[in-house]
Amino acid sequence: MKKFFAICSLTTFAFAVWLGWAVYSQERLETHCDHLAASFGAHLSNGRRSESSKYLIWCGSPGPSDGDSAMIRDATANIINAGLGQTEISLDLSGTSISNESIAEIGRIRGLYGIDIRDAEITEQGAKELRFRMPRTIVRW
Q: What digits encode the pLDDT tens for the residues 43-69?
C-alpha cells in the first residue's frame, strides 16, 4: 500500500510541475507577444473573461499612423506565428489615423481572424480593397 501511495504522490507532483510550467510558458509567450504589439503602440489581450483562444491586438486612440503600417504588418504576423495555440487573433485599428495608404501593407497579413477599422481614416473603397486582399478575415468598417 505504501508503494501505491508513493506512486500516486509522485505522479501528482509530476503533473503539478508540468501544469505549472505550461501555465508559466503560456504567460511568457503572451508577454512576448504583448511586447511585439507594443512596438506600434498596441497591446495584446484575451480579456481573461473570454475564451483563452481568442486574442485581440488593440490600439488606443490616436494609435498608429500610416507610417507604422509595415511595423503593424510584421509585428502582427510574428504574433500570429508565435504559437499561442489554436487561436483567433484579431486586430483592432478602430479610431486610429490609419488610412487607405496602409491597405497594401496591412492587407498582406495572413491568418488574422478579424480586423476592426471602424472610425479609422479608411474610406469605403479602402475597406472593400482590404476585404479583397484579406478574403478569410472579417473586416469591420
A: 998 866 555 678 899 987 778 999 999
Spatial contact of 59 and 25, defined as CB atoms under 8 Å apart: no
How far is 76 from 36, CA to CA, in rounded Å? 8
Selection from 41, 125, 63, 56 nearest residue 92 by Cα: 56
Reading the block at residue 15, the C-alpha cell is 503533473
DSSP 8-class letter at 50: S
10 Å CB burial of residue 97 (0-12, 13-18, 19+) is: middle
Rounded Cα–Cα distance for residues 62 and 23 (Å): 34
Highest CATH level, class, for 33-140:
alpha beta
Please indicate, yes or no, whether the overall pTM of this predicted structure exceeds 0.70: yes
Q: Which three cell numbers stand for residue 42?
A: 498596441
